[in-house]
Amino acid sequence: MKDSEMRRVTAICNGTVIDHIPGGKSLQVLRMLKLDSGRSNPISLVMNVPSDKLGRKDVLKIEDRELVQEELDRLAIIASEASIAIIRNYSVAEKRKIILSDELVNIIKCSFSNCITQNEREPLPNKMVVVDKNPVEIRCFYCGKIQDVTEITEHII
Ligand SMILES: [Zn+2]
Fold it and tell me: Which of 47, 79, 91, 110 could lock 140 by a disulfide, CB 3.0 to 4.6 Å apart?
């Protein structure tokens, strides 16, 4: 990371840094991680920083919280290029990769209102099948409806 980039946001002592989020998508990332409520830990957000790789990128720094792999993998749907660093005592303790699995269970609700998963009397696990990874295309395991990835954060569980 360049010096000028480092100075853009104060370094955090402990927590998680999510770098290389496609420009403007950091709010979606926060929703995906369920960190968009008033009860979350302190978060620094930088939007639309010039990036060689992405053109424009966002960076998130979440204090005092180490995101676990299961949480990170949710991001694969909207920000598969993101890179994750776990920070301990101001230095990078671990780097984590985001992995998009072939199936997403109980992460997203099917957006089709007639889907059998919407039947309250017989609740079924919400299961999505990843049909394509680049660009991401997912469909409901039960009704087969392709989900709108741009609106996916509206349907997270
Ligand atoms: Zn469905």
Answer: 110
